[in-house]
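[step 3/7] fold_predict: job queued, chain A
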Amino acid sequence: MSDDDYCIAVAVGNPDNAEQLVRTARDVARERGGEVFVLGVVVTPRESPFALFTDEVITREFGDERQAVLDRAVSVAAESDVPVSGKLFVASSVARGVLHGVRERDCDALLLGWEQRTRQDAVLGTNVDRIVRRADCDVLVEKIGALAGTVERVLLPVAESRHAALAASVARAIAVTNDATVTLLRVVGSRSEEAAAQDLLAAKADSLSSVDSRSGVAVETAIREGDVPDVIVTESERHDVTVLGATRTGAIRRRVVGSTPQAVGRRAEGTIILAKRGDGSLVSRVLRL
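[step 4/7] structure written:
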């Protein structure tokens, strides 16, 4: 599986999670024969006197901290055979800077770190919400939990969603790189749904493990009865990473990712990755692959 033009951007700013985000982006890029583009943002509010300077001057004179984080992230990505580049952008907000960087580089996907909510009506965090809503490319949002250094088990809840294929491709990419097992989980409301769930999981397992015969993935399946977020949170405790496709349910303000991924992301203790397919006019190259 390869696409010479495939590029995933990863936005870094917090030094505590930058390296882990880059490793995830590296896994995704490697699976597609693509590259990683690391970007950082130096924020200069419109009313700031810094607006009198050029972006180059601002980056050179006031972007030392951001540049240090970006350089470290680039060096981590460069430890593998995946091509990597990086750049600092100057903008009036983090969201504007990230979106500008993604569009300038014409990226296929963007990986963001999960933020704590800073407004009552924010779903993932104000900057992340804005970026997820406005990005044309695929978006992955990662909440980093307590990782033991290696990934041995990846949980992939199976649901009907236009974002499901993207979530599956990300789960597979992580599993291939780490030689991990993927557990396909289907949550049902009653035993009467189990037969259909078994057929669905069998088809998903065949699809996941046969994408590329050169890099097989060990796949397990599980059917559980109960409330969907409750079951996923419980099962996530037995896995190192959980990958969820976005949904379009819930109140209007929750439509950024959907009510179930939002609930799981907030309650689960482990690493959670939310996958949202791009809404741009071009078909995502991730899904074509």
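[step 5/7] annotate
The radius of gyration is 19 Å.
The beta strands are 7-11, 35-43, 84-91, 109-113, 138-143, 153-157, 181-188, 218-225, 241-245, 271-276.
exit 0
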